[in-house]
Write a structure and sequence with these properties.
Helix content is about 50%, strand content about 0%. It has a domain of about 30 residues.
Length: about 60
């Protein structure tokens, strides 16, 4: 029998973020290998002008 565990989206996100900083053995919430593979490790500069980057991306996309 498949058991469903009801959990709010905010609780899922909270658990995911906590799991990133915890050892796997300490976490009560498991993250699938696919979701773990999404982590890029790219660091975003603190002075990044995201509005300009987004605008530039849109301009390039719709040339």
């Amino acid at each position: 029998m498949h058991q469903t565990k009801k959990m709010s989206l905010s609780r899922i996100v909270e658990s995911y973020l906590q799991s990133l900083t915890m050892d796997k053995k300490d976490s009560d919430f498991s993250i699938s290998p696919f979701v773990r593979s999404l982590a890029t490790g790219i660091k975003i500069p603190t002075d990044l002008d995201y509005k300009k980057e987004y605008s530039d991306q849109l301009l390039e996309k719709y040339k």
